Amino acid sequence: MKYLIMCEGPNELAIIKMLLEHDKLIFTEDDLLNLVPYHARQIGKSSAVKAALNLYHGDVHVLRIGDKLSDQLKIPKEYKGKIKDVKKYCTKPELEMLLIISEGLDADFEKEKSKKSPKIFSKEHIVYHRTRYDNSTDFYRNYYGDRIDLLVDAIKRYKQLKGKHERDEGYLADLLK
Prior knowledge:
This protein is of the alpha/beta class. Helices cover 37% and strands 17% of the residues.
């Protein structure tokens, strides 16, 4: 059995890769299909995911990670017997909530959240090493790369603050050791 990690965007992919590199998840790269997580929303639209599924002959459990996973995962008929399970792990409203929590700005954001998205709030308030947040994968890597425990703490705190997701959605914290 292998996990197919499908990340909605490149920033979610960067977060998952950092957590894997620091052995913070309940699975390792050895547990992953083709040893890597993927930036893919749908199986049929990703040639890399399809190639990995074609090469592996065991059971696969899909873990989808992102902030907007409202679209149904379409499993192509040739993989229906291979894919045993699909689970969603959400970072609603947006991945930037982790930065806001890490900066201790969650109370300030609460006051402005009716007027600003987490992305806009982060662009206005978060600066690291004289670099303003710009929604780039590099920013996440620079911000959390040497401070992985800050990322882990923000993921755990997010679950405490957020309350409930939809019934069929888990938290990133559920994937932590």
